[in-house]
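Propose amino acids for all 455 sites.
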């Protein structure tokens, strides 16, 4: 065997697996294969001047490379079982929280010291929300911010680089079973290992699907979350964000009984493009450094959709809607809430007249031509509900960017050790469909590393 352990993917799941293996069994020969670039080479060409929108790089630096999809994220590590994944269903609630706290300690050790940990525990907003049929979920959130998150990743890489073999710009093509372990085939070479940890995240979703089919590993379809990213003056949500930083609020619509939720709140942040398998959607982040902060806050409003019969492919549904918005807007569409309510498209002129400066250069358009009525109605209802706890949310100039889609990988069948039916083949992080967040993905890496180290 070339290696004791091969890790595929250097996102939070893969990084924390490598880190934890080195804590317990530093003599192990470990390799990490990553389709994207090394951290120092990750750079999105959009500069807002020469290059204003996504040019579809071969390897998207936002989604791929050391640090995974989380490298330029807001670095919000939510320590909770209420959202961000279902790791607790496999490892138990208490253990899942312990793992997330452990990840938090490592982040602090590698540069996150001094960053703030917010908590909803005992918050007066819980009462305020429930009075308006809005439900605030429980969580502690460590906000590293995009800048400190990068520093932490850089420090972890410096720590690991002479302990683990990193192969960047190296896409793994196949994983095959061989006597005594696994063979991992890259473009030119085949490497063998006793144990293999697959942590390919969302960008590796199609690849993961293929590998599961080839190895006959059972999977089941997951949900897709569809909606918009809302951007408004930071003052509108300041009373909530100053105390909680991120508030996850769920609302059940009166019209359809669908649940709409806030997601990924970025106080004084920026709205950004996201490229998943060539489809441009929207996301957001914010910096800890006050100099890089903006005057706006952004967050997503999402509705979950799951399909069963005869159509099963929730992701395909989400992709089709995102493609439609890309077709109409050449990328992401932006619309003023007032224009949406009046049934008219936003135009460059109307955008110029608005009392808010958008942080993303998107195409003014009409989201009602893109999002299904049921989803759009739910989002509008939630905006009016939020207006009661954060007056100003339903102002005409509130910006809606579309579409935001959260794709979830299909759920792969693994046991409580996150091991597949093949001993020594683990599937973790967002690629497993079990986690959807930095803290859950990282925790899953720690969990499997400890299992391997024990064995
Ligand atoms: C813009 C943005 C902001 C976000 N903000 C937050 C946030 O604030 N808080 C939060 O909790 N979550 C956030 N998320 C989600 C979070 O980043 C993910 O949940 C997390 O990164 C998942 O970690 P992972 O290791 O499972 O996968 P990923 O981070 O996706 O990493 C997987 C890695 O595997 C590599 N890979 C894929 N296929 C192959 C292959 N065949 N061979 C080799 N390598 C491969 C990819 O290049 C990638 O680098 C954000 C996501 C984005 C895109």
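Proposal:
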């Amino acid at each position: 065997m070339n290696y004791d352990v091969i890790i595929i993917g250097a996102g939070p799941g893969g990084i924390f697996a490598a880190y934890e293996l080195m804590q317990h069994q530093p003599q192990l020969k470990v390799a990490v294969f990553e389709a994207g670039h090394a951290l120092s080479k990750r750079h999105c060409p959009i500069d807002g001047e020469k290059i204003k929108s996504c040019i579809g790089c071969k390897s998207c630096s936002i989604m791929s490379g050391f640090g995974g999809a989380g490298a330029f994220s807001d670095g919000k590590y939510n320590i909770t079982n209420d959202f961000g994944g279902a790791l607790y269903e496999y490892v138990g609630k208490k253990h899942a929280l312990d793992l997330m706290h452990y990840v938090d300690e490592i982040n602090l050790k590698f540069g996150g010291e001094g960053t703030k940990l917010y908590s909803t525990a005992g918050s007066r907003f819980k009462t305020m929300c429930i009075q308006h049929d809005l439900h605030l979920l429980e969580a502690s959130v460590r906000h590293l911010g995009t800048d400190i998150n990068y520093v932490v990743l850089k420090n972890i890489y410096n720590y690991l680089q002479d302990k683990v073999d990193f192969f960047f710009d190296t896409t793994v093509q196949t994983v095959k079973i061989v006597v005594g372990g696994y063979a991992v085939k890259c473009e030119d070479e085949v490497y063998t290992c006793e144990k293999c940890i697959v942590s390919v995240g969302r960008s590796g979703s199609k690849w993961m699907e293929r590998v599961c089919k080839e190895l006959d590993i059972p999977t089941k379809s997951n949900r897709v979350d569809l909606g918009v990213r809302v951007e408004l003056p930071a003052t509108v949500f300041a009373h909530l964000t100053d105390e909680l930083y991120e508030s996850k609020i769920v609302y059940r619509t009166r019209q359809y009984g669908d649940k709409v939720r806030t997601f990924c709140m970025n106080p004084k942040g920026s709205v950004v493009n996201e490229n998943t398998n060539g489809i441009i959607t929207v996301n957001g982040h914010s910096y800890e450094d006050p100099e890089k902060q903006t005057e706006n806050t952004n967050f997503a409003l999402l509705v979950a959709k799951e399909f069963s019969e005869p159509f099963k492919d929730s992701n395909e549904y989400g992709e089709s809607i995102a493609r439609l918005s890309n077709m109409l807007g050449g990328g992401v569409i932006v619309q003023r809430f007032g224009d949406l309510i009046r049934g008219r498209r936003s135009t460059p002129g109307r955008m110029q007249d608005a009392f808010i400066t958008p942080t993303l250069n998107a195409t003014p358009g009409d989201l009602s031509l893109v999002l299904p009525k049921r989803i759009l109605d739910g989002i509008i209802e939630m905006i009016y509900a939020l207006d009661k706890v954060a007056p100003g949310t339903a102002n005409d100039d509130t910006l809606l960017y579309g579409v935001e889609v959260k794709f979830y990988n299909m759920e792969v069948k693994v046991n409580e050790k996150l091991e597949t039916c093949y001993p020594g083949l683990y599937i973790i992080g967002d690629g497993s469909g079990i986690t959807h967040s930095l803290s859950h993905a990282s925790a899953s890496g720690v969990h499997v590393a400890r299992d391997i180290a024990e064995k």
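The first helix runs from residue 12 to 24. The two ends are 17 Å apart (CA to CA).
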